Amino acid sequence: MDDPIAFFITIATYGTWLPGDQRGWIEYHKGWQLPDPVRELEAAAKMNEDAKILSLRQRELVENQIRETCEYRKWVCHAVNCRTNHMHAVVSAFETPPKKVRADSKAWCTRRLKENALPEKTDNWWAERGSIRWVFGDEGLDQVVCYTHDGQEWKPDA
């Protein structure tokens, strides 16, 4: 199989998509899981801060930081969209492991958010990991870029 041309990264903010969530959830190394209300309550009880909902200013900081990190690392940022409870980024980072792309993105966004968080003190901005999907081919890249830019507002017909 060919190498991916980009990574589609999704990272939820802290506490906004817990294990057991009613929407379903991803268990590390085990994949998609059905809702489990008991597990969700247990996860909520273990939280040491409130769930993080990002303001418009914080969302702008995240988007700008992703672009800056990509520029500094010589990666290509095809798209970035930060919402109140998660962010998406589509990044080409040749010869860089995708987990490093995700980790560097989270780390730099966390630094920027902490610098601008006064008077609020926050240690936990993001969920523990996040999703990394490999993107193959121009058609796949077009799809995830379109979703990142426009798919957040899309709602299926009722």
Notable traits:
two-stranded antiparallel ribbon; 158 residues; 2 domains
Compute the number of strand runs.
6
Name the assembly state.
Answer: single chain
The overall number of domains is: 2
Low-confidence stretches: none
Helix content class: 25-40%
Which structural class should the secondary elements be placed in? alpha+beta
Order of helices and strands: EEEHHEEHEH
CATH topology of the largest domain: Alpha-Beta Plaits
CATH 2nd-level architecture of the largest domain: 2-Layer Sandwich
Number of helices: 4
The largest sheet, given as strand count, sense and whether it forms a barrel, is:
4 strands, antiparallel
Q: Estimate what percentage of residues fall within beta strands.
A: 15-25%
Distance between the termini: 39 Å
CATH superfamily of the largest domain: Transposase IS200-like
Order of strands across the widest beta sheet?
4-5-1-6
From the spread of the alpha carbons, the general shape counts as: globular
CATH class of the largest domain: Alpha Beta
